[in-house]
Design a protein that fits this description.
heterotrimer; A mainly alpha; B alpha/beta; C mainly alpha; A: mainly alpha; ABC transporter involved in vitamin B12 uptake, BtuC; two-stranded antiparallel sheet; 2 strands; 73% helix; disordered C terminus; C: ABC transporter involved in vitamin B12 uptake, BtuC; 74% helix; globular
Amino acid sequence: MQFDQILQYTLSGLSTGAIYALIGIGFSIIYNATGIINFAQGEFVMLGGLLTLSCLNVLKLPLWAAIPCAIAVSTLVGILFERLAIRPLRHPTPINLVIITIGGSILLRGLAMLVWGKDTHSVPPFSGDAPIAIGGATILPQHIWILAITLIIIFINKIYFYHTISGKAMRACSYNRRAAGLVGIDVKRMVLFSFIISSAMGAVAGIIVAPLTMTAYDVGIMLGLKGFCAAIIGGMSSGLSTVIGGLILGVLESLGAGLISSGYKDAIAFIILLLILFFRPQGLFGKADSERV
Amino acid sequence: MLEVSGITQIFGGVTALDNVSFSIAKGDITGVIGPNGAGKTTLFNIITGIYSQTAGTVTLEGKNVSGFPPERLARLAMVRTFQNIELFGGMTVLENVMVGMHTRSSSGLLACALKMPWTISEERRIRDGAMKWLEFTGIVDLADHLAGSLPFGKGRLLEIARALAVEPRIVLMDEPAAGLNSQETLGLAQLIKRIRDLGITVVLVEHDMELVMDICDRIVVLNLGKKLAEGTPREIQDSPEVISAYLGDDD
Amino acid sequence: MKRNFLLFIGFSVLVMLAPQYFRGGYMMNVLVFVGINTMLAIALNLLLGYAGQISLGHAGFFGLGAYLSGIMTTTFSLNPWLAMPLAAIAVGCLAFMIGFPVLKLKGHYLAMATLGLGIIFFIIFNETYEWTGGPSGLSGIPYLELGGISFDTDVKNYYLIWAFTLAVMLFSLNLASSRVGRALRAVHDSEVAAQVLGVNARLLKVQIFALSAIISSLAGSLYAHTMTFISPTSFGFNFSIELLTMVVIGGLGSIYGSFLGAALLTLLPEILRGANDYDIIIYGGLLMVMVMYMPGGLVRGIPALFRKLTGRKGGADHA
């Protein structure tokens, strides 16, 4: 009986972990290209879910059209954010960047509240909700969608960053921005690309998780923070390390909530965050930085 | 006064310094020179407590200070200046130098906040002391200017005044002449000699050979992380190894 | 020196006379909040504006002070005048201990760590309902009493709170223009240069973090004893952001700026009555606009704007 419970928690933890991984990769991509932690990342997740809802209910689009539509609009918001908030910043000190991205996240949340109100909304699952039995545990079809789509996105990411020119250019920026600029890479454009990719990924994360957890104007905060935890565990990598980080986080959270106490579920993520920041800020898989002065 | 012994520094796979040893006599002006990449700034950072060396010791006035953090070294009367001047841009010139007097004052957090009477007289003493050092370096007329608005040459002088306010027995300067024009460099040479006349030992890392040959009593030459030569300016100028290491450099 | 002293005296006089102008009534309650928020904004400003360390979790210390004092005076029937300093000392010690590992972090990582801390505190307030009453809150917290007077009306609380607020302001103004204040600003501008000059930057940052927490705890305790009821929603992430906004809008590194920011953000919802839901948008918008166009905050931006409009030249200043 105990084993079945643990299996159940682990499986559902893996799927939330996949979501955290997607969000975390979004953080890492922007951070690696620009050195900015985009506090507003969670809001793109929120937008993904809510926009899909509007496309389905208001525009009466079928699901296969609503999803790309929602991703497109979220990405547009991401571009606007980069253009209006990030690029014109005259004194990009860490404090100012933190404040401006926080301000942006609050603004987006407030606007979402105006448009969609404060209620939670439900989004229909992609292919029904008949439970599937695995071992002694059950999962929903949506869980499989989540894992599958996450894998696909990670695969696409890998191809983009390692086998296309613009992807390699972005990696170059993350290693050394000045050198990248000197060899002719348009750094400003890379910054824009990083926001485009991250907001799109965030929106996808929001879309695939919304049928499971409902969506509302304020889901972005917690999801964003936990996605950030995943990224920190993974050492801010935009690849496998963050995915593993997300999965570890999801599973630990799920096990902790199920076996210890559900009220403290959110605290688990933050305690892990603090422990990593204190004892291994480079992440579980990163190498310790030796700075040259 | 200062002795470095067997200093080795390995970063990842790179050996930046390899078994470097030399000593600095009290009251001397010593220059540390070498081609770019020789490891001069790394050595400086190790001596002044900003890096920890992989191996070797640093001895200050007979005391082993290896691994001591910079703030502890300041209390032992060692101070340094930076190649890219690290001024406190948001404070005035005078306030910058007043921070230099931190180790020569002692009012704590609570005493300052409650404005205890002894803090008022100490504040006056700090202010007067700071003004004195501004006069010594010749920038007292800029006392109320914002440090961040100073032209580079004056900023350099401010950094030196601030370091002197610590009342050090030894001051290490990292490329003090960098970015100065020839007139400012002459002024710097005079200033360094006057600092030595106060009894303060001076160590410089420098690229400006005229300055080094002019004012240094002894010179240490580094190349590719190893000590190449040590001696008086005359000896260094005549040394064949030094000349070949600097092949192509100006003289 | 003398000018600053006169400024403070003048400000204090205005504060003391304000109730006459407002003649009691609803405004008094709002002004009590302005006082508490000013204390909190100053606490955060000392850490953020002077020492340059970001904290996104300060509502946590505020809440700790409120709950510790509230629990000690209800469950344990302790005298509030004893409970408040005890709470402050406890919070100070906790902050001092947490401060060492936390303040080793810089920039974004520090922001996230303090964010996480604040949220952990919030979750604890919500979950330990045997002590805190959980989401339904803690009620029955006693008023403060002194020499037979019970501080149970808005007007009396106004004077009580503002006495503390003015004390905190004076304390901070003294600190800012002192040797320790300079050391703080030095650490902010160049930590390595400050260390080289003998400033123990690590210890100083932790000391200021603890001081900031102590002031926030005091504000929290006072809040508990004037409201007599507290609940976790007042101490969450949103309020931490509100405090950040107050400090940024008023002006980082300016004590009077913190008052300005606190006053503005406490009064704004009152002015925008009925537009309750818009306040969150306005905070976000304000934060972004201020950082982009007036990074020095109102306390520097308005005089600068005035000078630009009237074509006069000015110099740098801070108070």
